[in-house]
Amino acid sequence: xxxxxxxxxxxxxxxxxxxxxxxxxxxxxxxxxxxxxxxxxxxxxxxxxxxxxxxxxxxxxxxxxxxxxxxxxxxxxxxxxxxxxxxxxxxxxxxxxxxxxxxxxxxxxxxxxxxxxxxxxxxxxxxxxxxxxxxxxxxxxxxxxxxxxxxxxxxxxxxxxxxxxxxxxxxxxxxxxxxxxxxxxxxxxxxxxxxxxxxxxxxxxxxxxxxxxxxxxxxxxxxxxxxxxxxxxxxxxxxxxxxxxxxxxxxxxxxxxxxxxxx
Length: 263
Fold this sequence. Notes:
Layout: H1 3-32, H2 36-40, H3 44-53, H4 62-97, H5 103-118, H6 121-132, H7 136-160, H8 165-172, H9 177-211, H10 218-228, H11 232-261
């Protein structure tokens, strides 16, 4: 097929894809029955304006700031402990998932990792809340379970791409498998493991703030209660605290990565 014909076919294919996406979007609007007339008609805009105006006057009272401080510490602790547990459990699963204990262990570990990360944190939190009751314990376990699946898969890929020669040299010199892993494999892959864990910690800070909507404690639960009671001023302060917490953790994580991982 000559070049003009290929270009024409590619152009027709692109046009067909665009038309297909447009048809899917239109079908979605029709199926969902979204009524923009009701959204912008009548006094809807004025009601939305009055509701939104309540967020422009945050509540900075001493009692509310004290509650936010305790909620922020709870959220920070949930994310930190959840990430730490996930890093340890993920590393334990990454070893068999990387093919170091035979194909049966590899298949089982990868299946477990897929199952852990396939279930979102909110679903894990809803399930754990039923078993462990409301509070930060449920949020911590939910973060740890989902993040174990994510970090375990990332750790396994890092281990698969790690050179085996240093560990083999230690084993040939008489060292055991644990010694070979700690001194031959782990130093080569350690920067990647730290970088992955810090990145997931940043994500878990944001998710820990959301898990409170299913009763898992922290700032998210405070925000849910404030919004449920239409206390926009208190909710605005919680949202500002979430923003400051995320920005602070992002800055700390970036500094740690530059100091520990880049050097």
